[in-house]
Amino acid sequence: LALLSRPLRLWALMGANKLHKKSRMERLFGFRTEDLSSWQRLVALLNRPTDPASLGIFRCLFGMLMAIDITQERGLSHLDYKYLDGAPVCRFPLFNFLQPLPMDWMYFVYVVMFLGAVGIMLGCFYRLSCLMFISTYWYIFFLDKTAWNNHSYLYGLIGFQLTLMDGNRFWSIDGLRKPAIRNAHVPLWNYTLLRTQIFIVYFIAGVKKLDADWVEGYSMSYLAHHWLFDPFKVILPVELVSLLVVHGGGLILDLTAGYLLFFDATRRYAFIPVSYFHCMNSQLFSIGMFSYTMLATSPLFCYPDWPRRFFARFPSLLRPVLPFTTTDIQTSASCVYPETQSSGKDRQETRSATRPSKLRLKHKLGAIFTLLYLAEQFFLPYSHFITQGYNNWTNGLYGYSWDMMVHSRSHQHVKITYKDGKTGEIGYLNPGVFTQSRRWKDHGDMLKQYATCLSHFLPRYNITDPEIYFDIWVSINERFQQRIFDPRVDIVRADWSPFRPNPWLMPLLVDLSPWRTKFQEIEGKLDNQTEIVFIADFPGLHLENFVSEDLGNTSVQVLQGQVNVEIVEEKKNYTLQPGEQMKLPAGAYHKVYTVSEEPSCYMYIYVNTTEAALQENFTKLFELQERVRNGTETEPLPPELQPLMSADDSDESEINATDPIVRLFLKRQRRMKEVKKRKEANVLERLNRFTVKKYYMIRRGFLMTAIALRNLAVGLPPVEQLTREVAFANMKEPQAEANDDERLKDEVGHGEL
């Protein structure tokens, strides 16, 4: 009978194919032109019964990645540092009325979010788990704008979409509890939403990269120096690697990835570059689970039954714990079925040329939501005419725009000045005081929140009715360092609205962008010890600067416009024209006034004499150390240099070193040895180091959570007990102190010394 049934099924399929021959559009897009001819047909198309397998696997992967993300990028492991009760901290919520709960309750919020993510992964009490996850996730997201980025926004969007989908129809605990939904069809719009959302992430990111700075290779030029691009540097100079591989390759991939993944003919070839791209990003940037989440979305573009074919290849012994491989799929009330079923079935759904069954309200609502949601997602990246008050040289709310890695910034100078409104006393604040973030320096809305917060804290220090002024200099995409905000405006009393242009935002001097090619020529003529900073300023403003005593041979040279240089202590003024320069005294203040009608451009040229002398001493000590090791040094070493002979035991040598230069040299040698050891480590050693680091981080998060839940349940214990518990949670892996130096690697301008 089995042998007879096979040719009979083939004959039936051939007959069905004759009755329904696929058009070119149907082969390309999966639907016919007639499916778009009326509202009823469109609703039927969006609610077409579809295999739930791919959606179920994605649900499981997304929940697992979010559970991991909560302990890392969401900050569970260091939650007590961020939300310590009673700490004088300025915060940056989306709405000012949003405030964090007491610290122990914040841990409870994270527990709810974590349980929601695990519930999504397991498909257990699915709707409730989704609500638990997105309600707490969006609360945390809106609570701190300094942590906003595109991929955190994407996680919230996907969690919201899954809440409305039938994601628990495949490989879920709910399916074991409720046989009626186990392995049941899901409507096509479930896949349409997710696929289009990922397409938007790729395509809009590519459209935003059509910006001139990206096309010309200025946005992420520093990436070309990363070791991941070493294979390309074998055949191309680093400048072309930056222009063609980093910028050109990133632009082309973002613009085309969504299309290449969608079509059958290109999908198999797209998986390789897309996967390689995300794997590289996981090493280039500290972006948590984003790369792995995007890898998990790629199979959504395949036929929905791919998990059945994939897991069917596993041994039968594993079948009880693996997803279903059977093709017998249950019907679902969420879908619209044809009135009469034909015998021909394809990979995704049952097709029929007959009229679909009666459309219900839930089917129409699903179609309406899909269309409105997708329209909103295409609109938001270009809604800058609505949210004008958020302008920061990138229009609109950054987190909604998919402007991924389009801009790089470097800050040269940040000054916060306060003025006592009653006495007129003027003073200065340490940049970043009362806050844990540095992102406020680039956003007008956060600067307003920061100034308002400072005005509330300063009266504690006998500063009445304070006025706050900010002088912030930043270079965007390798341009001149320039002011981003007007330093003459009291930000406490300044007007700000999300729906009006920011009046105290200084314009980006895009007319000076061609100077960037000249910067490279000027820098190419300098020696390794000479540093240079390019400055542009507006007419009527001045820069007050201090030349450290460490910086010898400092001079200022005018490139464009006219400036007056005032030496404060000497009470002398010097006028400089383009091409002229003057030497500046070290250890003294000076002011540079822009007196021309157009913006002035000038550059500081200086040598860090202290560091240069230190490097020279290090070179001599290294040569002496080498002579001692190879036995060519015949003269006995003085006592202060004796630690060089036992440098292998570097920790003890540093302790015994009496000369500060020798101590710094030995510390530098130890750090270089550790860096070399990490770079030369094999795969197992790297994996072990990674695992141990993650273990202690996750361990701290869960132990601190247990302490917080205990406090909520039975109250605070004695202080001595709480101190011991926190100390136990803070326990680190061996040599953790040495690894702490890695935190400084992303600081701009941080060198080996």
Overview of this structure, please?
Residues 335-355, 731-753 are annotated as: Disordered. Residues 741-753 have a biased composition (Basic and acidic residues). This is Vitamin K-dependent gamma-carboxylase. Among the domains are: 408-508, no CATH class; 515-607, Jelly Rolls; 611-679, no CATH class; 683-749, no CATH class. The strands form 4 sheets. A 4-stranded antiparallel β-sheet has the order 4-3-5-6. With 753 residues, the chain is α+β, with helices and mostly antiparallel strands. Helix content is 45%, strand content 11%. Helix 3 (39-46) crosses helix 17 (361-379) and helix 21 packs antiparallel against helix 22. It contains 25 helices and 14 strands.
Q: How would you describe this structure in keywords?
A:
753 residues, alpha+beta, Jelly Rolls, four-stranded antiparallel sheet, 25 helices, disordered N terminus, disordered C terminus
